[in-house]
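Problem statement: downstream parser choked on a complex file, so we are re-checking the raw output for the nicotinamide-adenine-dinucleotide run. The parser issue turned out to be on our end (a line-ending mismatch), but while we're here, posting the original submission so the record is complete.
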Amino acid sequence: MKICCIGAGYVGGPTMAMIAKQCPDIPVHVVDLNQARIDAWNSDNLPIYEPGLDEVVKEARGRNLTFSTNVDEAIAEADMIFISVNTPTKTFGIGAGRAANLEFIEKCARQIAKVSKGHKIVVEKSTLPVRTAEAVKRILSSSGNGATFDVLSNPEFLAEGTAVEDLLDPDRVLIGGESPESIKALCDVYAHWIDRDRILTTNLWSSELSKLTANAFLAQRVSSINAISALCEATGADVDEVARAIGTDSRIGPKFLKASIGFGGSCFQKDILNLVYLCEHFGLREVAAYWEQVVIMNDHQKQRFSERIVKTLFNTVSDKKIAVWGFAFKKDTNDTRESAAIYVCRDLLRERARLTIYDPQVPEKSIRAELTAACSDMQGQISENDKRLIEQNVTVVSDCYEASKDAHAIAVLTEWDEFKELDFDRIFQAMQQPAFVFDGRNLLDHQKLSKVGFELHAIGKCR
Ligand code: NAD
Ligand code: UDX
Protein backbone atom coordinates (compact mmCIF):
# COMPACT_ATOMS: atom_id res chain seq x y z
CA MET A 1 0.00 0.00 0.00
CA LYS A 2 1.33 3.45 -0.99
CA ILE A 3 -0.43 6.71 -0.15
CA CYS A 4 -0.32 10.04 -1.91
CA CYS A 5 -2.01 13.24 -0.72
CA ILE A 6 -2.65 16.19 -3.02
CA GLY A 7 -2.58 19.40 -0.96
CA ALA A 8 0.00 20.12 1.76
CA GLY A 9 -2.06 22.63 3.73
CA TYR A 10 -3.44 22.79 7.27
CA VAL A 11 -5.19 19.44 6.76
CA GLY A 12 -3.05 17.53 4.25
CA GLY A 13 0.24 18.21 6.07
CA PRO A 14 -0.68 17.24 9.66
CA THR A 15 -3.03 14.40 8.66
CA MET A 16 -0.49 12.70 6.45
CA ALA A 17 2.29 13.26 8.99
CA MET A 18 0.15 11.44 11.56
CA ILE A 19 -0.65 8.56 9.17
CA ALA A 20 3.06 8.23 8.33
CA LYS A 21 4.04 8.31 12.02
CA GLN A 22 1.50 5.65 12.99
CA CYS A 23 1.99 3.43 9.90
CA PRO A 24 5.76 3.09 9.38
CA ASP A 25 5.02 0.34 6.84
CA ILE A 26 3.14 2.71 4.50
CA PRO A 27 5.04 5.21 2.29
CA VAL A 28 3.18 8.57 2.35
CA HIS A 29 3.96 11.18 -0.31
CA VAL A 30 2.43 14.66 0.12
CA VAL A 31 2.41 16.87 -2.98
CA ASP A 32 1.46 20.47 -3.65
CA LEU A 33 1.81 22.98 -6.48
CA ASN A 34 3.14 25.55 -4.05
CA GLN A 35 6.95 25.13 -4.05
CA ALA A 36 7.50 27.47 -1.09
CA ARG A 37 5.08 25.43 1.04
CA ILE A 38 6.78 22.16 0.11
CA ASP A 39 10.22 23.66 0.85
CA ALA A 40 8.93 24.68 4.27
CA TRP A 41 7.58 21.16 4.98
CA ASN A 42 11.09 19.87 4.13
CA SER A 43 12.77 22.38 6.46
CA ASP A 44 12.97 22.96 10.23
CA ASN A 45 10.52 25.83 9.84
CA LEU A 46 7.19 24.16 9.02
CA PRO A 47 4.66 26.27 7.11
CA ILE A 48 2.06 25.97 9.87
CA TYR A 49 2.30 26.45 13.60
CA GLU A 50 0.64 23.60 15.45
CA PRO A 51 1.69 22.37 18.93
CA GLY A 52 3.44 18.99 18.74
CA LEU A 53 3.60 18.90 14.94
CA ASP A 54 7.38 19.36 14.65
CA GLU A 55 7.99 16.11 16.55
CA VAL A 56 5.50 14.13 14.45
CA VAL A 57 7.00 15.38 11.18
CA LYS A 58 10.58 14.85 12.34
CA GLU A 59 9.87 11.24 13.31
CA ALA A 60 8.41 10.25 9.93
CA ARG A 61 10.05 12.59 7.41
CA GLY A 62 12.80 10.85 5.46
CA ARG A 63 11.56 7.47 6.73
CA ASN A 64 8.14 7.00 5.10
CA LEU A 65 6.95 10.63 4.76
CA THR A 66 8.00 12.76 1.79
CA PHE A 67 6.94 16.18 0.52
CA SER A 68 7.42 17.26 -3.09
CA THR A 69 5.88 19.05 -6.06
CA ASN A 70 6.02 15.89 -8.22
CA VAL A 71 2.25 15.55 -8.44
CA ASP A 72 2.11 13.20 -11.46
CA GLU A 73 4.77 10.86 -10.11
CA ALA A 74 3.11 10.64 -6.70
CA ILE A 75 -0.30 9.88 -8.24
CA ALA A 76 1.13 7.25 -10.58
CA GLU A 77 2.87 5.38 -7.75
CA ALA A 78 0.04 5.48 -5.19
CA ASP A 79 -2.68 2.92 -4.48
CA MET A 80 -4.67 5.41 -2.41
CA ILE A 81 -4.87 9.12 -3.27
CA PHE A 82 -6.23 11.67 -0.78
CA ILE A 83 -7.49 14.95 -2.19
CA SER A 84 -6.94 17.62 0.45
CA VAL A 85 -6.98 20.82 -1.56
CA ASN A 86 -8.74 24.05 -0.61
CA THR A 87 -12.46 24.50 -1.32
CA PRO A 88 -13.01 28.22 -0.67
CA THR A 89 -16.22 30.17 -1.12
CA LYS A 90 -16.70 31.25 -4.74
CA THR A 91 -15.97 34.93 -5.31
CA PHE A 92 -17.34 35.12 -8.86
CA GLY A 93 -20.16 33.92 -11.10
CA ILE A 94 -23.09 31.73 -10.09
CA GLY A 95 -23.25 31.25 -6.32
CA ALA A 96 -20.62 33.94 -5.62
CA GLY A 97 -20.26 34.51 -1.89
CA ARG A 98 -21.96 31.20 -1.03
CA ALA A 99 -21.17 28.15 -3.12
CA ALA A 100 -17.90 26.25 -2.73
CA ASN A 101 -15.34 26.78 -5.48
CA LEU A 102 -14.64 23.23 -6.63
CA GLU A 103 -12.15 24.20 -9.32
CA PHE A 104 -9.19 22.69 -7.43
CA ILE A 105 -11.04 19.45 -6.70
CA GLU A 106 -11.95 19.04 -10.34
CA LYS A 107 -8.38 19.76 -11.45
CA CYS A 108 -7.12 17.03 -9.10
CA ALA A 109 -9.68 14.54 -10.42
CA ARG A 110 -8.66 15.30 -14.01
CA GLN A 111 -4.97 14.94 -13.12
CA ILE A 112 -5.61 11.61 -11.42
CA ALA A 113 -7.62 10.41 -14.43
CA LYS A 114 -4.82 11.44 -16.77
CA VAL A 115 -1.91 9.91 -14.92
CA SER A 116 -3.35 6.74 -13.35
CA LYS A 117 -2.99 3.15 -14.51
CA GLY A 118 -4.45 0.06 -12.78
CA HIS A 119 -6.79 0.44 -9.79
CA LYS A 120 -6.78 3.38 -7.36
CA ILE A 121 -8.78 4.42 -4.32
CA VAL A 122 -9.50 8.15 -4.38
CA VAL A 123 -10.34 9.67 -1.00
CA GLU A 124 -12.12 12.99 -0.61
CA LYS A 125 -10.44 14.57 2.43
CA SER A 126 -11.46 18.14 1.57
CA THR A 127 -14.83 19.39 2.84
CA LEU A 128 -17.25 19.15 -0.08
CA PRO A 129 -20.87 19.79 -0.94
CA VAL A 130 -23.00 16.66 -0.75
CA ARG A 131 -22.93 14.68 -4.03
CA THR A 132 -19.50 15.97 -5.15
CA ALA A 133 -18.34 12.34 -5.37
CA GLU A 134 -20.74 11.92 -8.26
CA ALA A 135 -18.84 14.51 -10.33
CA VAL A 136 -15.47 13.14 -9.19
CA LYS A 137 -16.49 9.64 -10.31
CA ARG A 138 -17.62 10.87 -13.72
CA ILE A 139 -14.35 12.69 -14.33
CA LEU A 140 -12.31 9.70 -13.19
CA SER A 141 -14.28 7.36 -15.44
CA SER A 142 -13.11 9.38 -18.44
CA SER A 143 -9.52 8.16 -17.86
CA GLY A 144 -8.14 6.96 -21.16
CA ASN A 145 -5.63 4.52 -19.63
CA GLY A 146 -8.07 1.82 -18.62
CA ALA A 147 -7.60 2.75 -14.97
CA THR A 148 -10.40 1.96 -12.48
CA PHE A 149 -11.33 3.89 -9.36
CA ASP A 150 -13.29 3.72 -6.13
CA VAL A 151 -14.20 7.00 -4.50
CA LEU A 152 -14.44 7.33 -0.70
CA SER A 153 -15.41 10.29 1.45
CA ASN A 154 -13.27 10.71 4.57
CA PRO A 155 -13.83 14.21 5.93
CA GLU A 156 -11.41 15.61 8.48
CA PHE A 157 -12.65 16.82 11.87
CA LEU A 158 -9.40 18.18 13.34
CA ALA A 159 -9.45 21.69 14.77
CA GLU A 160 -6.45 23.96 14.32
CA GLY A 161 -4.36 24.50 17.42
CA THR A 162 -5.18 20.97 18.60
CA ALA A 163 -4.60 19.14 15.30
CA VAL A 164 -2.04 16.68 16.67
CA GLU A 165 -4.22 15.71 19.66
CA ASP A 166 -7.30 15.46 17.44
CA LEU A 167 -5.53 13.25 14.91
CA LEU A 168 -3.99 11.06 17.58
CA ASP A 169 -7.21 10.53 19.48
CA PRO A 170 -10.20 11.49 17.32
CA ASP A 171 -13.80 11.22 18.57
CA ARG A 172 -14.42 9.27 15.37
CA VAL A 173 -13.15 8.69 11.86
CA LEU A 174 -15.83 8.83 9.19
CA ILE A 175 -15.61 6.84 5.97
CA GLY A 176 -18.33 6.92 3.33
CA GLY A 177 -18.26 4.74 0.26
CA GLU A 178 -19.74 1.98 -1.83
CA SER A 179 -16.98 -0.59 -2.23
CA PRO A 180 -16.50 -2.76 0.91
CA GLU A 181 -12.91 -3.60 -0.15
CA SER A 182 -11.92 0.06 -0.48
CA ILE A 183 -13.65 1.00 2.77
CA LYS A 184 -11.75 -1.83 4.47
CA ALA A 185 -8.44 -0.67 2.97
CA LEU A 186 -8.91 2.80 4.48
CA CYS A 187 -10.19 1.40 7.79
CA ASP A 188 -7.00 -0.69 7.97
CA VAL A 189 -4.87 2.45 7.69
CA TYR A 190 -6.62 4.17 10.61
CA ALA A 191 -6.83 0.94 12.60
CA HIS A 192 -3.04 1.17 13.07
CA TRP A 193 -3.84 3.48 16.02
CA ILE A 194 -7.58 4.01 16.31
CA ASP A 195 -10.08 1.52 17.78
CA ARG A 196 -12.31 -0.03 15.15
CA ASP A 197 -15.45 1.01 17.02
CA ARG A 198 -14.52 4.64 16.51
CA ILE A 199 -14.32 4.21 12.73
CA LEU A 200 -17.80 4.90 11.38
CA THR A 201 -18.83 3.85 7.91
CA THR A 202 -21.76 5.32 5.97
CA ASN A 203 -22.85 5.83 2.40
CA LEU A 204 -21.00 8.50 0.40
CA TRP A 205 -23.64 11.19 0.66
CA SER A 206 -24.13 10.87 4.42
CA SER A 207 -20.39 11.22 4.91
CA GLU A 208 -20.13 14.31 2.70
CA LEU A 209 -23.14 15.91 4.37
CA SER A 210 -22.06 15.01 7.93
CA LYS A 211 -19.00 17.22 7.64
CA LEU A 212 -21.00 20.32 6.65
CA THR A 213 -23.55 19.47 9.33
CA ALA A 214 -20.94 19.07 12.09
CA ASN A 215 -19.45 22.47 11.34
CA ALA A 216 -22.89 24.07 11.09
CA PHE A 217 -23.89 22.68 14.51
CA LEU A 218 -20.63 23.80 16.14
CA ALA A 219 -20.84 27.30 14.67
CA GLN A 220 -24.49 27.49 15.66
CA ARG A 221 -23.54 26.95 19.30
CA VAL A 222 -21.07 29.84 19.15
CA SER A 223 -23.62 32.13 17.51
CA SER A 224 -26.24 31.06 20.06
CA ILE A 225 -24.08 31.93 23.06
CA ASN A 226 -22.94 35.14 21.36
CA ALA A 227 -26.59 36.10 20.80
CA ILE A 228 -27.19 35.57 24.51
CA SER A 229 -24.09 37.65 25.31
CA ALA A 230 -25.84 40.70 23.83
CA LEU A 231 -28.82 40.10 26.10
CA CYS A 232 -26.49 39.65 29.08
CA GLU A 233 -24.89 43.03 28.42
CA ALA A 234 -28.34 44.62 28.36
CA THR A 235 -29.67 42.96 31.52
CA GLY A 236 -26.89 42.36 34.03
CA ALA A 237 -26.65 38.60 33.50
CA ASP A 238 -23.11 37.25 32.98
CA VAL A 239 -22.64 35.12 29.87
CA ASP A 240 -19.92 32.92 31.43
CA GLU A 241 -22.27 32.13 34.35
CA VAL A 242 -25.12 31.40 31.94
CA ALA A 243 -22.84 29.14 29.86
CA ARG A 244 -21.81 27.23 32.99
CA ALA A 245 -25.39 26.90 34.15
CA ILE A 246 -26.71 25.54 30.86
CA GLY A 247 -23.57 23.53 30.02
CA THR A 248 -24.01 21.30 33.09
CA ASP A 249 -27.24 19.99 31.52
CA SER A 250 -25.95 16.79 29.98
CA ARG A 251 -28.25 17.28 27.00
CA ILE A 252 -26.50 20.58 26.20
CA GLY A 253 -22.93 19.86 27.37
CA PRO A 254 -20.21 22.37 28.30
CA LYS A 255 -18.15 22.62 25.10
CA PHE A 256 -18.36 25.36 22.47
CA LEU A 257 -20.20 27.77 24.74
CA LYS A 258 -17.45 30.36 25.06
CA ALA A 259 -18.77 33.77 24.11
CA SER A 260 -16.36 35.69 21.90
CA ILE A 261 -15.97 38.41 19.30
CA GLY A 262 -17.29 35.82 16.83
CA PHE A 263 -16.03 32.65 15.25
CA GLY A 264 -13.35 32.75 12.58
CA GLY A 265 -11.23 30.24 10.70
CA SER A 266 -11.33 28.90 7.20
CA CYS A 267 -14.18 26.44 7.80
CA PHE A 268 -17.25 27.59 9.72
CA GLN A 269 -18.43 30.48 7.56
CA LYS A 270 -17.47 28.80 4.29
CA ASP A 271 -19.21 25.55 5.18
CA ILE A 272 -22.41 27.17 6.45
CA LEU A 273 -22.64 29.36 3.35
CA ASN A 274 -22.15 26.23 1.29
CA LEU A 275 -24.95 24.52 3.24
CA VAL A 276 -27.19 27.55 2.66
CA TYR A 277 -26.44 27.45 -1.05
CA LEU A 278 -27.20 23.73 -1.23
CA CYS A 279 -30.53 24.19 0.58
CA GLU A 280 -31.48 26.99 -1.81
CA HIS A 281 -30.45 24.81 -4.74
CA PHE A 282 -32.84 22.11 -3.54
CA GLY A 283 -35.65 24.67 -3.03
CA LEU A 284 -35.48 24.57 0.80
CA ARG A 285 -35.79 28.31 1.42
CA GLU A 286 -36.73 28.19 5.10
CA VAL A 287 -33.93 25.73 5.86
CA ALA A 288 -31.44 27.98 4.06
CA ALA A 289 -32.64 31.05 6.00
CA TYR A 290 -32.35 29.15 9.30
CA TRP A 291 -28.67 28.33 8.78
CA GLU A 292 -27.78 31.67 7.25
CA GLN A 293 -28.79 33.33 10.50
CA VAL A 294 -25.75 31.71 12.18
CA VAL A 295 -23.45 33.72 9.90
CA ILE A 296 -25.54 36.89 10.17
CA MET A 297 -25.35 36.65 13.98
CA ASN A 298 -21.58 36.18 13.76
CA ASP A 299 -21.14 39.29 11.60
CA HIS A 300 -23.29 41.20 14.08
CA GLN A 301 -21.11 40.08 16.99
CA LYS A 302 -17.91 41.32 15.32
CA GLN A 303 -19.49 44.65 14.45
CA ARG A 304 -21.04 45.03 17.91
CA PHE A 305 -17.59 44.69 19.48
CA SER A 306 -15.92 47.42 17.42
CA GLU A 307 -18.93 49.70 17.93
CA ARG A 308 -18.70 49.15 21.66
CA ILE A 309 -15.07 50.26 21.62
CA VAL A 310 -15.94 53.45 19.74
CA LYS A 311 -18.93 54.26 21.95
CA THR A 312 -17.02 53.65 25.17
CA LEU A 313 -14.08 55.77 24.06
CA PHE A 314 -16.38 58.83 24.12
CA ASN A 315 -17.74 58.16 20.62
CA THR A 316 -14.47 58.68 18.81
CA VAL A 317 -11.32 56.66 18.27
CA SER A 318 -9.94 58.99 15.63
CA ASP A 319 -6.18 59.38 16.19
CA LYS A 320 -6.40 57.26 19.34
CA LYS A 321 -3.95 54.44 19.77
CA ILE A 322 -5.52 51.01 20.31
CA ALA A 323 -3.34 48.06 21.26
CA VAL A 324 -4.57 44.91 19.54
CA TRP A 325 -3.56 41.72 21.33
CA GLY A 326 -3.87 38.74 19.01
CA PHE A 327 -4.75 38.47 15.35
CA ALA A 328 -5.01 34.68 14.71
CA PHE A 329 -8.56 33.28 14.59
CA LYS A 330 -7.88 31.30 17.79
CA LYS A 331 -4.89 30.53 20.00
CA ASP A 332 -2.10 28.10 19.09
CA THR A 333 -2.29 28.68 15.34
CA ASN A 334 -0.71 31.10 12.90
CA ASP A 335 -3.84 30.92 10.72
CA THR A 336 -5.65 34.21 10.16
CA ARG A 337 -8.26 33.09 7.64
CA GLU A 338 -11.61 34.75 8.47
CA SER A 339 -10.25 35.78 11.87
CA ALA A 340 -12.74 38.03 13.67
CA ALA A 341 -9.74 40.27 14.44
CA ILE A 342 -9.52 41.27 10.77
CA TYR A 343 -13.00 42.79 10.76
CA VAL A 344 -12.70 44.45 14.16
CA CYS A 345 -9.39 46.03 13.05
CA ARG A 346 -10.85 47.10 9.71
CA ASP A 347 -13.81 48.81 11.39
CA LEU A 348 -11.54 50.59 13.89
CA LEU A 349 -9.22 51.71 11.09
CA ARG A 350 -12.15 53.19 9.20
CA GLU A 351 -12.93 55.15 12.39
CA ARG A 352 -9.35 56.48 11.98
CA ALA A 353 -7.88 54.67 15.00
CA ARG A 354 -4.14 53.98 15.10
CA LEU A 355 -3.63 50.26 15.69
CA THR A 356 -0.59 48.62 17.27
CA ILE A 357 -0.94 44.91 16.69
CA TYR A 358 0.85 42.03 18.39
CA ASP A 359 0.37 38.32 17.76
CA PRO A 360 2.91 35.71 18.87
CA GLN A 361 2.64 33.64 15.66
CA VAL A 362 1.23 35.79 12.88
CA PRO A 363 3.81 37.64 10.76
CA GLU A 364 3.35 41.30 9.77
CA LYS A 365 2.99 40.34 6.10
CA SER A 366 -0.11 38.22 6.84
CA ILE A 367 -1.70 40.95 8.98
CA ARG A 368 -1.29 43.57 6.25
CA ALA A 369 -2.48 41.14 3.55
CA GLU A 370 -5.63 40.24 5.53
CA LEU A 371 -6.50 43.88 6.23
CA THR A 372 -5.96 44.77 2.58
CA ALA A 373 -8.23 41.90 1.47
CA ALA A 374 -10.92 42.89 3.99
CA CYS A 375 -10.91 46.45 2.64
CA SER A 376 -11.07 45.31 -0.99
CA ASP A 377 -14.11 44.48 -3.11
CA MET A 378 -14.74 41.11 -4.81
CA GLN A 379 -12.51 42.18 -7.71
CA GLY A 380 -9.64 42.90 -5.32
CA GLN A 381 -9.87 46.70 -5.71
CA ILE A 382 -9.06 48.82 -2.65
CA SER A 383 -9.75 52.53 -2.22
CA GLU A 384 -6.78 54.90 -1.85
CA ASN A 385 -8.16 55.92 1.52
CA ASP A 386 -8.23 52.37 2.95
CA LYS A 387 -4.80 51.67 1.50
CA ARG A 388 -3.39 54.75 3.21
CA LEU A 389 -5.01 53.82 6.53
CA ILE A 390 -3.43 50.34 6.45
CA GLU A 391 -0.03 51.77 5.54
CA GLN A 392 -0.02 54.67 8.01
CA ASN A 393 -2.27 53.64 10.91
CA VAL A 394 -1.16 50.03 11.42
CA THR A 395 2.02 49.17 13.30
CA VAL A 396 2.94 45.56 14.00
CA VAL A 397 5.08 45.09 17.10
CA SER A 398 6.78 42.24 18.89
CA ASP A 399 5.15 42.22 22.34
CA CYS A 400 2.14 43.37 24.35
CA TYR A 401 4.14 45.97 26.31
CA GLU A 402 5.27 47.74 23.16
CA ALA A 403 1.76 47.50 21.73
CA SER A 404 0.19 49.06 24.83
CA LYS A 405 2.65 51.93 25.45
CA ASP A 406 0.74 55.24 25.25
CA ALA A 407 -2.39 53.40 24.11
CA HIS A 408 -5.87 54.60 25.04
CA ALA A 409 -7.22 51.07 25.04
CA ILE A 410 -6.31 47.41 24.71
CA ALA A 411 -8.47 45.07 22.61
CA VAL A 412 -7.93 41.35 23.30
CA LEU A 413 -8.89 39.58 20.08
CA THR A 414 -7.24 36.13 20.42
CA GLU A 415 -7.12 34.04 23.61
CA TRP A 416 -3.34 33.41 23.68
CA ASP A 417 -2.33 32.04 27.11
CA GLU A 418 0.67 34.39 27.36
CA PHE A 419 -1.70 37.39 27.63
CA LYS A 420 -2.79 36.18 31.08
CA GLU A 421 0.73 36.25 32.50
CA LEU A 422 1.71 39.89 31.88
CA ASP A 423 2.74 42.62 34.31
CA PHE A 424 -0.49 44.60 34.23
CA ASP A 425 0.80 47.29 36.64
CA ARG A 426 3.55 48.07 34.16
CA ILE A 427 1.10 48.10 31.25
CA PHE A 428 -1.32 50.38 33.12
CA GLN A 429 1.40 52.89 34.04
CA ALA A 430 2.50 53.21 30.41
CA MET A 431 -1.01 53.84 29.01
CA GLN A 432 -3.10 56.96 28.49
CA GLN A 433 -5.64 57.49 31.26
CA PRO A 434 -8.38 56.40 31.71
CA ALA A 435 -6.99 53.07 30.51
CA PHE A 436 -9.57 50.78 28.90
CA VAL A 437 -9.45 47.04 28.26
CA PHE A 438 -11.92 45.40 25.85
CA ASP A 439 -11.63 41.68 26.47
CA GLY A 440 -13.10 40.06 23.35
CA ARG A 441 -12.36 36.56 24.67
CA ASN A 442 -13.21 36.94 28.37
CA LEU A 443 -9.66 35.77 28.94
CA LEU A 444 -8.18 38.07 31.57
CA ASP A 445 -8.72 38.25 35.32
CA HIS A 446 -11.18 41.14 35.35
CA GLN A 447 -11.21 41.64 39.11
CA LYS A 448 -7.42 41.86 39.21
CA LEU A 449 -7.33 44.31 36.31
CA SER A 450 -10.02 46.51 37.82
CA LYS A 451 -7.96 46.67 41.03
CA VAL A 452 -4.95 47.81 39.00
CA GLY A 453 -7.14 50.65 37.69
CA PHE A 454 -8.27 49.54 34.23
CA GLU A 455 -11.82 50.12 33.04
CA LEU A 456 -12.90 46.66 31.88
CA HIS A 457 -15.38 45.84 29.11
CA ALA A 458 -16.00 42.17 28.38
CA ILE A 459 -18.29 40.09 26.21
CA GLY A 460 -21.68 39.38 27.78
CA LYS A 461 -20.96 41.28 30.97
CA CYS A 462 -22.38 44.55 32.24
CA ARG A 463 -20.16 47.13 33.77
P1 NAD B 1 -4.99 24.97 2.53
O1 NAD B 1 -5.30 26.11 1.67
O2 NAD B 1 -4.16 25.17 3.77
O3 NAD B 1 -4.24 23.83 1.67
C1 NAD B 1 -4.64 23.41 0.41
C2 NAD B 1 -3.41 23.17 -0.45
O4 NAD B 1 -3.81 22.56 -1.68
C3 NAD B 1 -2.65 24.45 -0.83
O5 NAD B 1 -1.32 24.38 -0.36
C4 NAD B 1 -2.71 24.46 -2.37
O6 NAD B 1 -1.52 24.94 -2.97
C5 NAD B 1 -2.91 23.00 -2.68
N1 NAD B 1 -3.50 22.74 -4.01
C6 NAD B 1 -4.61 23.30 -4.56
N2 NAD B 1 -4.83 22.77 -5.78
C7 NAD B 1 -3.85 21.86 -6.00
C8 NAD B 1 -3.57 20.98 -7.07
N3 NAD B 1 -4.32 20.93 -8.16
N4 NAD B 1 -2.47 20.19 -6.98
C9 NAD B 1 -1.69 20.23 -5.88
N5 NAD B 1 -1.93 21.03 -4.82
C10 NAD B 1 -3.01 21.84 -4.87
O7 NAD B 1 -6.38 24.29 2.93
P2 NAD B 1 -6.71 23.43 4.25
O8 NAD B 1 -6.99 24.32 5.39
O9 NAD B 1 -5.69 22.36 4.40
O10 NAD B 1 -8.10 22.78 3.82
C11 NAD B 1 -8.18 21.78 2.85
C12 NAD B 1 -9.57 21.18 2.86
O11 NAD B 1 -9.83 20.58 4.15
C13 NAD B 1 -10.70 22.21 2.66
O12 NAD B 1 -11.73 21.61 1.94
C14 NAD B 1 -11.17 22.49 4.08
O13 NAD B 1 -12.51 22.90 4.12
C15 NAD B 1 -11.00 21.14 4.74
N6 NAD B 1 -10.81 21.18 6.19
C16 NAD B 1 -10.00 22.14 6.75
C17 NAD B 1 -9.80 22.13 8.14
C18 NAD B 1 -8.91 23.15 8.80
O14 NAD B 1 -8.89 23.18 10.02
N7 NAD B 1 -8.18 23.97 8.07
C19 NAD B 1 -10.37 21.13 8.92
C20 NAD B 1 -11.16 20.17 8.30
C21 NAD B 1 -11.36 20.20 6.94
C1 UDX C 1 -13.46 23.78 13.07
C2 UDX C 1 -14.08 22.50 13.65
O1 UDX C 1 -14.06 22.57 15.08
C3 UDX C 1 -13.32 21.28 13.18
O2 UDX C 1 -13.93 20.09 13.66
C4 UDX C 1 -13.30 21.28 11.67
O3 UDX C 1 -12.58 20.17 11.21
C5 UDX C 1 -12.69 22.57 11.13
O4 UDX C 1 -13.41 23.69 11.66
P1 UDX C 1 -11.32 25.24 13.67
O5 UDX C 1 -11.98 26.25 12.80
O6 UDX C 1 -9.90 24.89 13.39
O7 UDX C 1 -12.14 23.86 13.60
O8 UDX C 1 -11.40 25.72 15.19
P2 UDX C 1 -12.56 25.72 16.30
O9 UDX C 1 -11.96 25.32 17.58
O10 UDX C 1 -13.76 25.00 15.86
O11 UDX C 1 -12.91 27.28 16.42
C6 UDX C 1 -13.53 27.99 15.38
C7 UDX C 1 -13.81 29.41 15.81
O12 UDX C 1 -14.84 29.45 16.79
C8 UDX C 1 -12.61 30.11 16.44
O13 UDX C 1 -12.56 31.44 16.00
C9 UDX C 1 -12.89 30.05 17.92
O14 UDX C 1 -12.28 31.09 18.63
C10 UDX C 1 -14.40 30.19 17.91
N1 UDX C 1 -15.04 29.61 19.12
C11 UDX C 1 -14.98 28.27 19.34
C12 UDX C 1 -15.72 30.45 20.00
O15 UDX C 1 -15.79 31.66 19.79
N2 UDX C 1 -16.31 29.90 21.09
C13 UDX C 1 -16.28 28.56 21.35
O16 UDX C 1 -16.85 28.14 22.38
C14 UDX C 1 -15.57 27.72 20.45
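For whoever reads this later: Residues 326 and 359 are 4 Å apart (CA to CA).
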